């Protein structure tokens, strides 16, 4: 488990833990970022992260993204879908 800032672009991850206070956690929840949710990292570099949550793209500052801990999504075969 590591913060979103440590994943390269085009990586799908599952949110495992969210740090920060209640306001921050409520804000993320309103954007659809909750424990167990799958996200895709679309851009990670200097500046904000661009992530995809369901069919919505969001930008998170580096400080915000460091408080969201995730694990890389394991590939599943197409037969299991």
Please write out the topology.
Elements: E1 2-3, E2 11-18, H1 22-30, E3 38-43, E4 49-53, E5 56-60, H2 62-65, E6 68-72
Antiparallel strand pairs: 1-6, 2-3, 2-6, 3-4, 4-5
How would you portray this structure in words?
This is Ferrous iron transport protein A. InterPro entries: Fe-transptr_FeoA-like, FeoA-like, FeoA_core_dom, Transcriptional_repressor_C. A six-stranded antiparallel beta sheet has the order 1-6-2-3-4-5. The chain has one domain (2-74): Ferrous iron transport protein A (FeoA) (SH3 type barrels). Strand 3 and strand 4 (49-53) form a beta hairpin. Helix content is 16%, strand content 38%. With 81 residues, it is an alpha+beta fold.
Could you give a short account of the major beta sheet? 6 strands, antiparallel
The unreliable regions are 77-81
Shape: globular
Query: Strand content of the residues, in percent?
Result: 35-45%
How many β strands by DSSP?
Answer: 6
The CATH architecture is Roll
Radius of gyration: 12 Å
One letter per element, helices H and strands E, the order comes to EEHEEEHE
Strand order of the largest sheet: 1-6-2-3-4-5
- How far apart are the first and last residues' alpha carbons, in Å? 25 Å
Approximate helicity band: 10-25%
Number of structurally distinct domains: 1
CATH uppermost class: Mainly Beta
Query: CATH H level: which superfamily?
Result: Ferrous iron transport protein A (FeoA)
Q: Enumerate how many helices there are, as a single number.
A: 2
Instruction: Write down the CATH topology.
Output: SH3 type barrels
């Amino acid at each position: 488990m590591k913060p979103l800032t440590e994943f390269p672009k085009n990586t799908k991850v599952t949110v495992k833990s969210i740090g920060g206070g209640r306001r921050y956690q409520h804000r993320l929840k309103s954007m659809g970022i909750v424990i167990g949710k799958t996200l895709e990292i679309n851009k990670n570099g200097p500046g904000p992260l661009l992530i995809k949550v369901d069919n919505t793209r969001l930008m998170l500052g580096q400080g915000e993204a460091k408080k969201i801990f995730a694990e890389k999504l394991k590939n599943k075969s197409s037969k299991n879908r």
